[in-house]
Amino acid sequence: MPDPDAPSAPAPGVAARILNPHAVPVAGVDDHLPAVAPERLTAAALRARFAAPPAWQPEFRGDGAAWASQRVPSAASVLVPMVDRADGVMVLLTRRADHLRDHAGQVSFPGGRAERHDADAAATALREAQEEVGLAPERVEVIGSLPAYTTVTSFIVTPVVGLVAPPFTLELDRSEVAEAFEVPLAFLMNPAHHRRHRFDWDGGQRQFLSMPWGGYFIWGATAAMLRNLYRFLAA
User: Alpha-carbon distance 137 to 127, whole Å?
Assistant: First the structure.
């Protein structure tokens, strides 16, 4: 009987889809890398870093959409919401609804496909965050963005970084989002919590990062964008 947790068998020349990332072995943990210093993780420090960015290179540009999907690439944006709590900056994440076609049940940033009426990537991210979790745009201060990331499902995603000022109330669109939760930025910016996974199949190899927190499994594109944020803040 086939292993239901194994990656799906791909057609020749097409990447395997990861059906259950928990089943992919951990190849290593990046605890040899330093954590971002706490003084760089305050709202003021984040604002200053994006206002005057250092020279740096993102570690991840994508996960293979150019050769893994037959879809025409589409522009999209996600909001990376940094909530300025009294006891430290938190990152607001969502768990997607289980019935969705793409990334069902996965942890992600609020976001989605760009619409023609969106002025720019930030407008897309703010609109999608309001539609998905009810986050009012006036509660978000956009401070910058990270390099675009191309997903295996052929979306070219711009991560837009925003500081969120409490208090705010969320209202989830249950057709898209199962729940929303917050993770300490300091946890995510410590590579001791970054695990590397790898699997091989006849047509090649795929690798991805995970950052488990509590009962949540942060992985794939979301973890890759957070790793790029780590590189940006650590530079």
Answer: 8
* Of the candidates 13, 160, 9, the residue with the CA atom closest to the CA atom of residue 79: 160
Give the Cα-Cα-Cα angle 43, 46, 48 (nearest 5 degrees).
Answer: 110
Contact 55, 235 (CB under 8 A): yes
Task: Return all residues near 152 (Cβ < 8 A) that are at least 6 apart.
Answer: 15, 17, 63, 64, 65, 68, 69
Average confidence (pLDDT) over 15-37: 86
What is the pLDDT at residue 206?
78
The model carries a pTM of 0.89
Query: Nearest Cα to 124, choosing from 164, 77, 167?
Result: 77
Question: Which of 3.40.50.1220, 3.30.1330.30, 3.40.50.2300, 3.90.79.10 would CATH assign to domain 30-197+208-234?
Answer: 3.90.79.10
Bridge partners, 197 (sequence order): 26, 208
Q: What ranges do the domains of the chain cover?
A: 30-197+208-234
pLDDT in tens, 115-137: 999 999 999 999 999 999 999 99
Non-local (6+) Cβ contacts of 76 within 8 A are 111, 112, 113, 114, 124, 155, 156, 157, 158
Enclosing H/E stretch for 225: helix 220-234
pLDDT over 50 (residue 203): yes
The pLDDT value given to residue 184: 98
